[in-house]
Amino acid sequence: MRRGVLLVVVLIVLLAGFGAAFAPYVYPELEYRLHGKETTILPKPSVSVAGRWFDDYFVVEQIDQRTLAIGEPRYYQGNYSYLLLGDTRAVLFDAGTGTRDIVPVVRSLTTLPVTVIASHLHFDHVGALGRFDHTALLDVPALRARVHDSMLTLGRYEFMGFSQDLVAPSFRVDEWWAPGSSIDLGNRTLRVLFTPGHTPSSLSLYDAQNHQLFVGDYIYPGHLYAFLPGSSRSAYLTTTRQLLSSVDAATRIYTAHMQDPPAPVQAPVLDFADLQALERTLSELQDGTIATIDPGGLGSTAGYPRVFPVRGIVTFATGYRWNNR
After folding, report:
1. What is the tens place of the pLDDT at every residue in 165-203?
2. Is 190 helix (H, G, I), strand (E, B) or coil?
3. What is the biggest distance separating any 2 CA atoms in the chain, rounded to whole angstroms?
4. Is the dihedral of CA 316, 321, 324, 325 positive or negative?
5. What is the pLDDT of residue 303?
6. What is the pTM of this model?
């Protein structure tokens, strides 16, 4: 009897240890099974909308003469992609969610050849990879090694599409953009920045002349996800400090997810002060001098993830020291 109880206790301890160690993987699998798939398409918003409807799903907002934000306000995560125009070519930064086809929207806005690149490879950013004139990837060894005959197939925990019953896609890679390189669009230059933290292969694009930084999920007005497979607090801190030292203080930061209603529908934009606030939070988190706050609807299971304040509605959600280093 005593031996049986001891065995049960040992099994419980082992399972708890496994769950703690592999929480970035356990969490999304468990949450999906407990709460099911999110309702992907929402009703048309009743709040004010910046820009114009392309149809009953996409919104197009003109940032300036050569920068357009393409929003999906009816998608449950409120994604935004950005069309960056030069004189000779265009870049689509983030490829839409794939819930509806973003290709006709882009084709209606420019006749230039379009290269599409995703800020990272989660399911809600890769919808149109392989569907424009060229598809680019960040030139890092971890991605290069997996491409065969110019084709890449995304992995389960790289794509994360199982949460929406999506099958990981394969697509052709036409261009490799090295960290620190410059992309000439014709009288407009973009610098490729390697910005890991949210994922190991996240990237941002910096237009220094126009004081514009396009960052994907690195930062946005909401909960920053740094607790899923591949996330890293230390990489987040390194990236934040690099950005603070390399971008102009007047830079506008164009992000991938709009603020939740009842905020107006508009391109989600942050500024340099938000980067500074994120650096403070990450530094205090590293030093152990910051307290957690209520997750505010993140749906945390057994205290995971932990959520920390940044600035305004921006918060940082992360794991523990042993599973999100």
Report:
1. 999 999 999 999 999 999 999 999 999 999 999 999 999
2. strand
3. 79
4. positive
5. 75
6. 0.93
Beta bridge partners of 85: 90
What confidence tens digit (pLDDT) does each residue in 24-55 have? 888 888 877 776 777 889 999 999 999 999 99
Give the whole-angstrom CA distance, residue 93 versus residue 253. 13
| Of the candidates 225, 4, 2, 205, the residue with the CA atom closest to the CA atom of residue 91 | 205
Pick the closest to residue 79 from 105, 115, 108, 114 (CA basis): 105
Tokens representing 95 are 């490829």
CB burial of residue 166 (10 Å; 0-12, 13-18, 19+) = middle
Domains of the chain by start residue, with CATH: 3-318 (3.60.15.10)
Q: 66 in helix, strand or coil? A: coil
8 A C-beta contact, residue 71 and residue 56: no
Rounded Cα gap, residues 123 and 268, in angstroms:
20
The residue written with tokens 């265009």 in the block is: 90
Mean pLDDT of the 57-62 span: 98
Q: DSSP letter at 282?
A: H
Whether cis (ω within 30° of 0) applies to the bond prior to 305 is yes
From 220, 176, 234, 206, select the one nearest 93 (Cα to Cα): 206
